[in-house]
Each structure stands twice: as structure tokens, then as C-alpha cells.
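Worked example 3. Consider a protein that binds manganese (II) ion.
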Amino acid sequence: MLILMHAHATNLQVDAVCREVEERGFRSVKLPGADRVAIGVLGSNPISLRDSIVNMPGVAEAVPVSKPFKLVGREFHPEPTVVEIGDIKIGDSAFVVMGGPCSVESEEQLMETAEAVAEAGGHMLRGGAFKPRTSPYSFRGLGEAGLKLLALARERYGLPVVTEVMNIEDVPLVGEYADMLQIGARNMQNYGLLEAAGRAQRPILLKRGMSSTIEEWLLAAEYILSQGNPNVVLCERGIRTFETYTRFTTDLSAVPLVRELSHLPIIVDPSQGTGKWKLVAPMALAGLAAGADGLIIEVHPHPDHALSDGAQSLTPRHFAAMMEQLRLVAAPLQRQV
Ligand code: PEP
Ligand code: MN
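Given these inputs, the predicted complex is written out as C-alpha cells:
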């Protein structure tokens, strides 16, 4: 429920309403607007409060919020959220490209990739140190040694780092090295991990689960926001369909839909989203055209020898060519790459 205060309501009246809400066992969130304050009420069945609240001094009306995701939805928060990572702003007119290997494999591989990403105009470095793999016998990442390499690459090439955290107990460790924590598709409904991410002092990249609806995904983001971390970027990374020629089906309709439903920024991962490097640039361009706030792209100097996801990785040359194409598409859309 959203309580709308009168434009001339005093701070004391706003505080009195918040107190009443809390005393009745709900959470209140003050939402200052351009000309009046609204108060969000969180909890189950908040509408039961309505009759007593509407008669309090300063209250104009109390309206039910129709969507199950409250903090993430546009109803509570109409203005778009801009997530800042150093000088980089995600959710603004700039189009932010994160590039790097699927997995951090070695110093040589990571530095070569980071240099290429920076040179081509990429804005952030990606790379997994903790890898969720379907088979326990596949390469599962270098762990902390991989995090150290990412930090070294950031120092050398000036690119902020985004990397996956798979376990609750690793959140502080990964947060020590990374500028942004990625929660992968396979963990999108790991509610303990989401809450730990909500308590972390880092922005979160929340991938869509491969079999999750948009509503489940937004409710996963709600877990993070409900713990006090407002800096969440959503990432459409493809969903499972009957199609087998692609690894996943990149659901680009999620981009304008999420934009309508939520104030959070949204980026696209056409690498996981297609599984085929030749499809990555076309879907990246389509993501920009659909209104995404950015991309996350897998790049490897020698995709044939990659320890994970080589088939969907761009070479540095293909990454640079994609960046050129993105600039051409961005200009008439008044976006900057
Ligand atoms: C990845 O980014 O390499 C990855 C494993 O992503 P997802 O969680 O989307 O599969
Ligand atoms: Mn990958």
C-alpha cells in the first residue's frame, strides 16, 4: 500500500504515520516526491491498515499497490534508478559494456583480454573466479587467485570488475576484490544469497534464472532491496525454450517490459543468451535498440582453447568490431557507447 500525504503535510505528521505503520507490525518506507511525500507500507495485507490511516492528519489517500514487488516496482518509485560504479553510471543515457572472459584462467589470458576490452572502449571487466558448472568435473574457476588477477587487471587497465559470487559465505571475500557482485542465473532464487547480497556494500548484477518468469526475477531483486541495497542491475541472459539451435532464447521483450514494471536498470547478456559467438553482435545491437542500459559480453583471446564458454566468446577483434557497430546504432538513439 502507498500512503500519499498532502502537499502541505508536516514532517511531524509524516513521522506519526510511519510510527503508526510500524506499531501495527508493518515496515514503512518514506518516499519523498517532487511536491509531496508518499509512504510505502510493506508486509502482508497492509490494506487492513487503510481505515485507520486515512483519518490521520496530513494523509490525502491510501492506495493499494497492485504488484507483488514493491520496492522494485515503478509504483513505489517512479524515477529510474542509476547505479554508480566509480565514474560509471548504469541506467543513464550512457550504454555500458562489460567485457571479459567467461572464466579467469591465467594472468596472461586475463591481461590480454582486459587490454583488448579497454582499448575497444569497454567500460567494465567481467570474469568468473567462482564458476557454476553443470558438471562437477568441469573447470570451476581459480577462486581467490582469480579475484586477485581481476584486481590486478583493474589496476592496470582502469576497468571496474564484475564477478560472480556463488555462496553466502563468499560474499565478503568477493566484495573485497570486486566492484560489482554478480548473482548467476542458477542462483537467482537462492534467497539466502540474495539477502546476503542485500547486506553487501556493493552493487549487484542479478541475472535472470533460465527458467524464471519476469515476476519471479523482480521478486528476487525485491529480496536484495528489502535488505537495504538499492543498487541492483538486472540482466536478461536467455531462457530455456524448445529451440536447440541456440543455447538459450534471449528474451529481448524483457527489456521494455522490465523498464515499464521497474525502475532498476537492465542489461543484456547475448553470450549466455545465444551460446554462439556469431549471434552475439546482432543480439547486442538488438539489445541496445530495445532500450537496454548495457551489455555483458564474453571475450577470449583464444576461444578454441577457453576453459568455459569458448563457443560463445568473441575474439578481441570481433569485440572491437561489435563496439564500432554499437556506436553507429547508439547515435540516432541518443545513447553514448
Ligand atoms: C556467466 O556469466 O558466465 C554465467 C555463468 O552466467 P549465467 O549465470 O547467466 O549462466
Ligand atoms: Mn559464461
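Take a moment to read the result before moving on. The pocket of phosphoenolpyruvate (ligand 1) is lined by residues 102, 128, 132, 184-186, 207, 237, 269, 272 (CB under 6 Å). The chain has eleven helices and 14 strands.
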